[in-house]
Amino acid sequence: MKKCARRAVIAGNWKMNMTPSTTVKAVEDTVKLTAGADCDVVLCVPFVDIVPAVKAAEGSHVKIGAQNVHYEAKGAFTGEISADMLKEVGAEYVIIGHSERRQYFGETDTTVNLRTKAALDAGLKVILCVGELLEERKSGVTAEIISMQTKLDLAYVPADELKNVIIAYEPVWAIGTGLTATAEQADEACGIIRGVIETLYSKEAAEAITIQYGGSMNDGNAAELLEKVNVDGGLIGGASLVPEKFAKIVEAASK
Ligand code: PEP
Description:
Blueprint: E1 9-13, H1 20-33, E2 40-44, H2 50-57, E3 62-66, H3 83-88, E4 93-96, H4 99-104, H5 109-121, E5 125-130, H6 134-138, H7 142-153, E6 165-169, H8 183-200, H9 203-208, E7 210-214, H10 222-226, E8 233-236, H11 243-253
Helix pairs in contact: 1-2, 1-11, 7-8
The structure holds phosphoenolpyruvate.
Phosphoenolpyruvate binds next to β8.
């Protein structure tokens, strides 16, 4: 399967932004402005915004996701949320292993793997984030880091579940910093991840899986990044909060 056979996925990560009331207009605007999308469009919103977001996107091409999920089904885990809870309120996607979770909330590859398996078991689609720190890139170990994360995060995920997994290559130094990986760096890293999938699963699985780039992607740089053979879409933070900018990225992915 060539890149042209893979459908791009443009996903917004609202992070800790928007309230239920501001969510409605932002989702409605995103729906309208991306009406011509020829790619999948997802908005991953704060937990309390999921219900209004799902309602505002109802019947449209825009799908709603969460930004984290716990791996246990229920119990004494104050402040956490389960995959079934997300499913029941209409979330279809969940971001797992975002670098901000790894950096600020003690997320490890072990917990990322547990969350990934729980989300897939519940029928959610997972956007699994991997990426190197700036020191790691400078030390020349980017390939080792993203390969190791991909292997550990996908441990015991069976081949038939891979259709519900998107991998987002997100160099940590490019997230929310305004620094973007060059299109060549993004393509190379996404290609390395694709190679890991081939080793772990099969050539077919590697050719079929969607691998996004994330890290200060915006309406100005999206086209160049998205035309690379291994870059199948984007995970967008800041620019996803502005529907007009997000829509331009969707347009670039639809060409
Ligand atoms: C992100 O939150 O995953 C992200 C890539 O953020 P930004 O686009 O703001 O760098």
